[in-house]
Design a protein that fits this description.
Four Helix Bundle (Hemerythrin (Met), subunit A), 14 helices, Rossmann fold
Length: 428
């Protein structure tokens, strides 16, 4: 492969800018522009010069051999002064080397995957870590980036490969039913995998919510203070408020960090009977989004939520509490009454749900696990029958292994890779 290079830090003025170079020509580049190859993994202050000897900058230089680098190839990292002119001059110098080219989006990480420095779940977790906005997202991404899901998948695979070996060994000796002792051994190997997969799939929904954000819908009749409450929670004028009923016609979304958890607040149209065609559409959208939200916060006149929308774990307050004399279980976005109590209730509910998060943080992960679990259920059912076919059971086990291999990238998944790396920046 070509030797690649790219600016790994954001463009523009900064204290430091980092240019990363990876590939077989790294040592040649280091000798030319740095005056030699630095000692591996130790920062060295060097004067950078172009091929004519002209001084470009004074920079900290790091060299990583292929056995100790992120990509699995020799890497040279140049920590420059963060001037636009300096960065441009160094990049222009690198472009003059034969065999060097600018890296494509995510190409450094893609090479790390190719060279088995990372598995596919770790690559996705790295992308999630870069995009993380809250503490919960950071912790979850780091958990997967550390290899937890990959190690779990390796354990699943080892158990299933052992089960396949036991089954296929019987094919050499008999075309009859599977011997009972082998069936028992196979079941003993696959049942823990089935149980673990089921648990991970059950926690996948919460993990996806941590990655994408929980939704909390504010629901109630018109002019009950929903938009005022949204603005109070957001800390800004996100929604239009007025004394006229029906001001909010569409769903208004505000994203925020709530005790480290990503939350999207939804301000919805007031629920009432109306003949206004546009308002009817707004109310329909309000009900649809509210029904799909993780939590609904009902602002009501009498403290009773609509039966058709209320779900376990929902929160009910009397709206416009500033007019009720600070009545218990009332709230007012205008004065702040009850707002802190609401935030505490939402955070407590979401923290309980977040505790059940699994390692599968993307829909692709859950799909691979489900396909593996489906194949293993077929195996277990077949082994419980008296006329189980060794060949068919073994093929179902192979299907389960292939599904789990796709989870960590052991199969041909070029279309998946293209989609993943399209979200990376050039220097990563």
């Amino acid at each position: 492969m070509n030797t690649i290079y790219a600016l790994s830090t954001a463009r523009g003025k900064a204290g430091v800018a980092v240019i990363r170079i990876s590939g077989s020509d790294v040592e040649r580049v280091a000798r030319t522009i740095c005056g030699g190859v630095p000692e591996p993994r130790r920062a060295s202050l060097r004067v950078l010069r172009d091929e004519t000897g002209e001084r470009l900058d004074e920079a900290l230089v790091l060299y990583f051999p292929d056995t100790a680098s992120f990509t699995g190839e020799p890497i040279l990292e140049l920590q420059l002064h963060g001037s636009v002119a300096v960065v441009s001059a160094v990049l222009a110098c690198l472009s003059g080397f034969d065999g060097l080219r600018v890296a494509e989006a995510g190409e450094f990480t893609r090479r790390a995957l190719t060279n088995e420095r990372l598995d596919l779940t770790q690559v996705e977790a790295l992308a999630d870590l870069i995009e993380s906005e809250t503490e919960a997202q950071r912790r979850q991404a780091l958990r997967v980036l550390s290899g937890d899901l990959g190690r779990r998948a390796s354990w699943w695979r080892a158990s299933l490969v052992r089960a396949v070996a036991l089954l296929e060994a019987t094919i050499d000796f008999s075309d009859e039913d599977i011997p009972q002792d082998v069936s028992a051994d196979v079941v003993a190997l696959i049942v823990p995998v089935i149980d673990d997969l089921s648990g991970q799939i059950a926690g996948a929904g919460v993990a996806e919510r941590i990655r994408d954000g929980f939704e909390v819908a504010i629901v109630g009749p018109p002019n009950i203070g929903k938009s005022t409450l949204l603005n109070a929670l957001a800390g800004r004028e996100a929604a239009i408020t007025s004394e006229y009923a029906g001001t909010t016609r569409d769903v208004i979304e505000v994203r925020m960090d709530l005790n480290g958890l990503p939350v999207t607040l939804l301000d919805t149209a007031g629920l009432r009977e109306t003949e206004d065609a546009v308002e009817i559409i707004g109310i329909s959208r309000a009900k649809d989004r509210a029904s799909l939200a993780d939590i609904r916060v009902f602002l009501t006149v009498d403290g009773v939520a609509p039966v058709d929308l209320f779900q376990d774990g929902d929160i009910v307050f009397k709206g416009k509490g500033d007019l009720l004399g600070a009545e218990a279980e009332s709230i007012s976005g205008l004065t702040g009454l009850g707002v802190e109590a609401l935030v505490e209730k939402i955070a407590a509910l979401l923290e309980v749900r977040a505790a059940g998060a699994g390692l599968a943080i993307r829909a692709r992960h859950k799909d691979s696990m489900r396909r593996g679990l489906l194949a293993l259920d077929e195996v277990r059912c077949a082994l419980s029958s008296e006329d189980a076919s060794v060949d068919l059971v073994a093929e179902d086990l192979h299907s389960a292994v292939r599904a789990l291999d796709s989870l960590v990238g052991r199969m041909d998944i070029e279309s998946v890779l293209d989609e993943i790396f399209a979200s990376f920046c050039l220097g990563k």
